Amino acid sequence: MKEKTILIVLGVLLLIGIGYWFLIGRGDRVETVSVSELKAAYEKMHMETDEVESYILELRILGTVDEERFNERVRFRNYMNEKIEVTVRYETTPERGQGRDRDRDAEEVINEEIYYLVDDVVYAENEEGEYEKKLTPFRYRDVNIYLTALVNLKESVDYEIETMGADEFYLYDVLVAKEAVQDILDSVLIDYEIKEDVETTIYLDDEGRVYRIVYETEDLKIYAFYAAINKIPDFTLPLMLGE
Predict the structure, then answer these.
(1) What integer best gives the mean pLDDT of the chain?
(2) What is the spatial distance between Cα 243 and Cα 228, in angstroms, rounded to a whole number?
(3) Domain segments of the chain as ranges
(4) What is the rounded distance in angstroms from the CA atom of residue 223 to the CA atom of residue 221?
(5) How confident is the model over 43-95, as pLDDT tens digits?
(6) Digit-coded pLDDT (tens) for 161-213
(7) Which residues of 125-141 are buried (b: 16+ CB within 10 A; e: fewer)?
(8) Stated pTM of the model
(9) Which CATH number is 29-241's, of 2.40.10.10, 2.30.30.140, 3.30.70.20, 2.50.20.20?
(10) Cα 130 to Cα 237: distance, rounded to the nearest angstrom
(11) I need a surface site. Which of 2, 12, 171, 218 has the fewest CB within 10 A?
């Protein structure tokens, strides 16, 4: 009887071990971390420490709200939070003509406008090709607002380790306070009310720096891709007028 009991216990332990192997051992590992690690990543990317001094941020906002289509594409080249080059890309449709002259194959044209943020002042190019202070509101003034997921969580955090090529990333699926994501949309002047907390995916690299953040609302997705961390040299600004 005693031997039978021992065999049953061993069998249960074996099943537990097999189950654990299927859940954890096969593929990505799942760990629990403290929110403080995400806060540390925020401080790095916010350049509050000396671990990050520059980066490129590729921002995409995609979706449709009340039949209005959004396809925002913006690149930030950020040096020390002191000099920021902002490239805004947008599409325009060329005139297709009418009747026999109609060009059905005319493709969208991608246009670019470049702005500079220097000491929180925005400069835009004038008709003479020189840069002067922009007096009208600028939608992309706050380069750090897209990091809000790191410090506005609504629940505890787990992560998986995901491999992309030769690199490993820490992947967090989190819920971010709706008010924080609303601030992002308000900052870029998109009229859309977020009614629920937002499912968000965060990727950190092996040095605890942000690689990617994806916010997913019901109608809009916000993608923030970070690259070339600490690889952006100090750059010369064009002639600024109106200082």
Answers:
(1) 83
(2) 31
(3) 29-241
(4) 6
(5) 999 999 999 999 999 999 999 999 899 999 999 999 999 999 999 998 765 55
(6) 999 888 999 999 999 999 999 999 999 999 999 999 999 999 999 999 999 99
(7) eeeeeebeebeeebebb
(8) 0.80
(9) 2.50.20.20
(10) 11
(11) 2
DSSP characters for 171-235? EEEEEE-HHHHHHHHHHTT------S-EEEEEEE-TTS-EEEEEEE-SSEEEEEEEESTT-----
Q: Amino acid identity, residue 138? A: F
Written as six digits, the tokens of 53 are: 């001094």
192, 193, 197, 198: CA torsion to nearest 10: -10
User: 7 φ, ψ to 5°?
Assistant: -65, -40
